[in-house]
Amino acid sequence: MTTEASADTCALSPDSPAALLREQANIMYANFYSRMENGRHVCPYLQSCLGTRTIGSHSFDSDFTLRIGSRYGACPTVPKVLFIGKESVEYHGRSGATSSSDTNPHYLRTLRTMAYLSEKARNEKTEFNPYAQTDVSLFNDYSAYFALTNFYKCAFKDSGKHSDVKNTAAQTKNCTDLLLKEIECIRPQIIIKQTLAGSRRFEQMLQGVAVKYCNEAFCGTRLYEACETRISSYKYNALPNTPFARLFPAAFYIVYTPHPCARGKYSFDRSWKYTKQAIDFVLEDIRQSSKIL
């Protein structure tokens, strides 16, 4: 198991927000992966997720942990953003490092999304279009502003093929526990879920939030929805006098987008205009809320 939060290639000041969050995350991982076996940390849920599988008879990939950009939370004009994806280890490397020079289109499209969000957050009237840029190296700097994690932390394969990656019902439940701990550590203002609204896995995570922090129904206010694509954005307010209110004193937002490598009507190129609109509604609500405060 990889048990350390990673950062981008920029040097971290020991007292920078990202460095402090990274330290907190690593303490959390050390506690979560407390059992050692053959010199390696082992997830407490491993056997539950394996079910009837055994590591010896199936390929087992340890997925990356939380990656925190070096300027995450350091720029007052750019919200703290967490991307939650669903990838296998062979596609992003164990460090979780992100670079636009990578040939993986998932990375490049994630960076383009963050580039748009960053520029739009800095200037509400910007017409910045990341798809007009062909020099992808210009997007590397944007990787410093967001955090990135996977919903699933492990991948089990019955063969060596990426298409044969399996996830179990136990993983859906157990990985939610760790995802909640990651969110607790870095407290993002915007979560961009790279799966559309209605995802059973993520809805279970939100139910976990309700049970753990609110003790009652936990429903967001829909800010935007493109019905033909299910791209949408929601606002969640903390209920007074709950643990959630102490964890998130201000509202936080979830933007549901297609996976960056989705095809057909959910392909990123075709759905980009709706993704932009979903982001625009969130940023406008943040601006209006700040004016009220």
Give an overview in words.
Strand 11 and strand 12 (231-236) form a beta hairpin. With 293 residues, this protein is an alpha/beta fold. An 8-stranded mixed β-sheet has the order 1-5-7-6-10-13-12-11, with helices on both faces. It contains 7 helices and 13 strands.
* SSE string, helices as H and strands as E: EHEEHEEEHEEEHEHEEHEH
Fraction of residues in helices?
25-40%
Shape type = globular
Spatial extent as radius of gyration: 19 Å
Helical/strand content category = alpha/beta
Distance between the termini: 43 Å
In the sheet with the most strands, the strands line up as 1-5-7-6-10-13-12-11
Strand content: 15-25%
Number of helices: 7
On the 0 to 100 scale, the average pLDDT is 78
User: Which sheet architecture does the biggest sheet show?
Assistant: 8 strands, mixed
Helices and strands in order:
Elements: E1 6-7, H1 17-32, E2 35-37, E3 40-42, H2 46-50, E4 59-62, E5 67-68, E6 81-85, H3 105-122, E7 146-150, E8 154-157, E9 165-166, H4 169-186, E10 190-193, H5 200-214, E11 221-226, E12 231-236, H6 243-247, E13 252-256, H7 268-292
Parallel strand pairs: 1-5, 6-7, 6-10, 10-13
Antiparallel strand pairs: 2-3, 4-8, 5-7, 8-9, 11-12, 12-13
Q: Which tags fit this structure?
A:
single chain; 293 residues; alpha/beta; 8-stranded mixed β-sheet; 3-stranded antiparallel β-sheet
Q: What is the structure about, briefly put?
A:
With 293 residues, the protein is α/β, with parallel strands linked by helices. It contains 7 helices and 13 strands.
